[in-house]
Amino acid sequence: MTPKPKIILTPGQHRGKAIVAIRFDYNTDIIKKVKTIKGTKWSQSNKFWYVDKDVFNLSVLFETLKDLAYIDYSALKTKQVTKTFHKQKSINTRKTKRDIPAIFLDTLEQKRYSNSTKEIYSSYFEDFVKHFSGKDLNSITPQEINNYIVELIKRYDISTSQQNQRINAIKFYYEKVLGREKMYFDIKRPKKEKKIPDVLSTTEIKNMIDVTGNLKHKCIISLLYSAGLRRSELVNLKLTDILSDRMLIKVRNSKGKKDRYVGLSKYMLNLLREYYKIYRPKTYVVEGKYEKKYSEESVLKVVKKAAKKAGIKRNITPHMLRHSFATHHLERGTDLRYIQEFLGHNSSKTTEIYTHVAKTDYTKFTNPLDTLYNDTPQKEGNHTPPYFRNKGNKK
Hints:
It contains 16 helices and eight strands. The chain is elongated and about 85 Å long. It is 43% helix and 10% strand. α8 (202-211) packs across α12. It has a five-stranded mixed beta sheet, covered by helices on one side. The chain has a three-stranded antiparallel beta sheet with strand order 6-7-8. By secondary structure, it is an alpha+beta fold. It has three domains: 1-87, Translation Initiation Factor Eif1 (2-Layer Sandwich), CATH 3.30.780; 92-195, Tyrosine recombinase, N-terminal domain (DNA polymerase, domain 1, Orthogonal Bundle); 202-388, Intergrase catalytic core (hpI Integrase, Chain A), CATH 1.10.443. β1 (6-14) and β2 form a beta hairpin.
């Protein structure tokens, strides 16, 4: 695989005017594309293409040339030059100015990595850049990278998970940004630790739900447990994802950009109907102020507060409710294959999640939340939305 050519953009002066120089090794395909960009000119004396700064549009240039070359515009520091490119919220300069190549951040954006992955990769790659400060990143050898990782292990005793994430961040730069061959350098990866997940007992979970007086918070804890949801999945859950006619919850675009179904608890449906009558959410099942999406940080606080109020001394997190959901299903005899589907985990026996979900008869399983309350959906009110209505209800 031949690495893409590189285009370097730099600010400068030409004939008394501020310009942006477009520098690259001779390439007829790139030249043809550059000529199509409005305002581009050739400087015979300097031997580079350029655009007057006052008409320069980075977004247009990037879209025109991104398929032909990697574009390094890290030298363009002024807001005037770059303001047209960053229209969407970015991790780049909003809160923390990253001391890393701008193209690294933009490649993360182009490949639509999750916000958490973008933040982790950027932070770890920034550490890498600072460690090799003053050295050309393109000249760093595989052995130097190995030594860097080993030093982190010895000095800071980083976890195997963090070690792999740091390796992935470095690999992303050399493989995805620079376009080098996969496994360009050989880093010895650790075996993944096989830790037993921390779970809560059914009594502890019931206590957490019962001591929570706030109805919205009660729904949050119950949803996390009854559907085995991740925090990100809960805050992104929409009203239209509650399929009460089929007693299902549709979890969209979860980890790995996959959709899945999970059974809707009867007790959960009752709770959601009661919650809807009071809070009247517009789009998301759980909304914060001004009808905005609830934050993951707020979910964490809700769970910790409930655990403390229930007298649980351990450090409880939302993910422990997900672990508990899976464990309690397994203890009740649910087949592992179905639990994998409920949680959205990858399976060696399937590549298509819908294939297995379509064959699943959710009605033959008792949701673990229902075993705590042994209840059925209550009578619907006049204002019950279609998401929570019983099958056949025409209201």
